[in-house]
Amino acid sequence: MSEALSELRERLAEIHDLASAASILGWDQQVMMPARGAGVRAEQLGTLGRVVHERFTDDAIGRLLDAARPEPGSTGEALVRVARRDWEKARRVPSELAAEIARAGALGHQAWVEARERSDFEAFLPFLQRNVELKLRYVECFDGYEDPYDVLLDDYEEGMTSAEVGALFAELRAELVPLIAAVAERADAVEDEVLHGEFPVAGQRALVRGVLERLGWSREGWRLDEAPHPFATSFGPGDVRLTTRYDPGYVGMALYGAIHEFGHGLYESQIDPALARTPLGEGASLGVHESQSRLWENVVARGRPFAGFLHGELARTFPEAFAGVDAEAYYRAVNRVRPSLIRVEADEATYGLHIILRFELEREMIAGTIALRDLPEVWNARMRDDLGVEVPDDARGVLQDVHWSGGDIGYFATYALGNLIAAQLWERARAELPDLDSSLAAGDGSSLRAWLGDRVHRHGRCYPPRELVARVVGGPVAVAPFVAYLRAKLGPIYGL
Amino acid sequence: MSEALSELRERLAEIHDLASAASILGWDQQVMMPARGAGVRAEQLGTLGRVVHERFTDDAIGRLLDAARPEPGSTGEALVRVARRDWEKARRVPSELAAEIARAGALGHQAWVEARERSDFEAFLPFLQRNVELKLRYVECFDGYEDPYDVLLDDYEEGMTSAEVGALFAELRAELVPLIAAVAERADAVEDEVLHGEFPVAGQRALVRGVLERLGWSREGWRLDEAPHPFATSFGPGDVRLTTRYDPGYVGMALYGAIHEFGHGLYESQIDPALARTPLGEGASLGVHESQSRLWENVVARGRPFAGFLHGELARTFPEAFAGVDAEAYYRAVNRVRPSLIRVEADEATYGLHIILRFELEREMIAGTIALRDLPEVWNARMRDDLGVEVPDDARGVLQDVHWSGGDIGYFATYALGNLIAAQLWERARAELPDLDSSLAAGDGSSLRAWLGDRVHRHGRCYPPRELVARVVGGPVAVAPFVAYLRAKLGPIYGL
Hints:
Chain A is an all-alpha fold. Chain A contains 20 helices and three strands. The first copy, chain A, has two domains: 3-146, no CATH class; 147-496, Neurolysin, domain 3 (Orthogonal Bundle). Chain A is 64% helix and 3% strand. In chain A, helix 5 (95-118) packs antiparallel against helix 6 and helix 12 (304-317) crosses helix 13 (327-333).
């Protein structure tokens, strides 16, 4: 390894340590910190953010990147590619603008919490305007893009363009709208009453822990805690942390939420330990990351084999609530499709339409072709047209999501891309793992876990997301496998 | 405020934020982190330590200290005094030596864990030799001291000298040895069987939480967790964290341990919030800090009024175990004096002799007047002479404490100084708070809490420890009040 590459690695490792420290402080804030610690914690996080930014955007990093000369095809080459990309993006944005975006995001978040509580879009509007204005200034720091929205999208999904996502989503929408309409005509065919009832939290905790342990969670390298807004994070391959939340009246929340976060956590836990403390030791992109959570939550845990295993665990834990409920009824219940108001509660089929709505509105916000004050009206009309639901108030409409309040514009698309990629990976895994269904039916996820580890996880960020997906599934992100998967599942359930 | 002072404050605040981040990572490591996270966590802590050291020892800090010109008598003046002291100490020690001390401490700690497990002093000896050798090199970085050990002591207790502590401890020893001998003759007068039995952990948890809430703990600004080696820490005045550990067979462990840590936490929680993010926002010294934990654990919670309240809480929580045990029996049980092997399990009276032994051995280690390999023999003889106990193995003798393994030489004295200061503060508080006993008997610690907040806590590190103590008690650290307190308590209990 050249001396420059070696020094670059050392500097990036230190920067990574400091960024990880910020992540640990963030986890602690959401899961552990007493409420009155918030003021000082904000200062601590602000300082860490500044130090990381200063150290990373230093001229010396640029000189080391130029001098590094890694071996072609080596990990060093991937390191230089990824670090150069991140460095050039970070250098283009003046520190003052970056700080102002962070500040406006914090203020916007606070305003959103209060505005959503009162369902008061007017009160949130000036903060949203400020966030959009700052994002437009952010876009101006870059050049060479076709569409200004491409700049934002690229922060969350490297290399994806608005045109490409727009085409995928148009195709997806054209498939989903008639499918959902067909299901709606037979809505009474599936009930999910079995998931609602009395499920004491102590029992749910033991159940969730047991299921995660079957999937690969272990006390030695993972945590499982509670948080009002569940998430997964990791501070190294041996320290992966999941959170979930428990609803004593609905057994689906904690169980499927935890399996979702497990998918994220498994990705991080299986990244090659040699990539730890480098910018390569992360998921390839948000879309690829989301493909992992959705693969485990939806494709595996709502699929017939593993749902059968879960049914057995549930019946054992909650014998009264599950008296007379067979595996088939449970399988149908967890796959019920029903248009609804809230994205995070949406089923697999309608979920995509929630995302497409947000993506299309974001493009218009950045293009300036929609007045921000008209968002509620446009939102509500679209929910009526696409999903047939009436939005009763903005809290359950345009104000429901946190993203825009903190300045995250360009993020939503990755959720739906995750669904598409998950279906593509699943198609491939089934072709390569002939015993997959029978092992999942026994509650054993080890073959899928190993396959994902080998094909996707261990590489971290060594390949650009597009290349990683192509290496595994043989082509670009595509809609057809997801639609085929949905039809194959919902056709028999709804008798379509 | 001068521009230089203002810039100094800003720089120190950032350094404080980074040091706090390291503390949060340390808390997380002891309380939350999965075991396999240890490798990466050590790197993260190493990086934070280096960045803090680099930023603090920067020449620019020295220039700002010179240029600051604070108003006489202002907080700025205290800030400059404390920061200059810390800066000059940090600058005298070459980074390589500081790093080597940290590294040897980490290796020594690991070796000690294994050596203690096997009670194998020989295996630990080379690591202890290395730690002492490095401490001697550390001492050489300084000048102007009378005794090399003064340099080490000053790191834990600003301004204290070996001669001064030696004189205090000689006086203390002369009082304790005959007192303990007199008690030993009437050893059967007090039993503590009531504290041993079956105390389910769930009940203990609720009890401890309830008692701490009466004392001033609140969910909004504090945490209470479990850790194998209990400690207290804080990351700002609104984020104070205690840990304790539960023994289902002994109710004293968790309860008195938690009250001890509460004393530390209360100190941090009542420091003037205006001192947050500065080097003044900490306890004045380890001795003063320990005076707070021992005041609450021993003087308050083993004192007759509050012990009566605790008896009521215990009898309510564990009615079977406490059937037929009255408040007087409980009071006597928690004040039983019995020479024993282990410092952390020692009673109030014998505790001092454990410390004096360690202090005197440390002085000899640094003076070179004892061969380190002779430590076990000297230790065991001294335990026999002073306390009349036979040390069966080094695990329960010279290997019992963690301090020397990590290079902490000079620390132990502060524990006994804490006992002395606690008794001095108590004497003063009783004189100024006429209703103190009756409020404590009702489980109400608010008047003592407020008094300590006003006299001690709010000042943080604004006064040197010697000056702070003198301001409150009217003189230097002294032995007499502690001995008088002990005699007043043990005399009636043991009929001396």
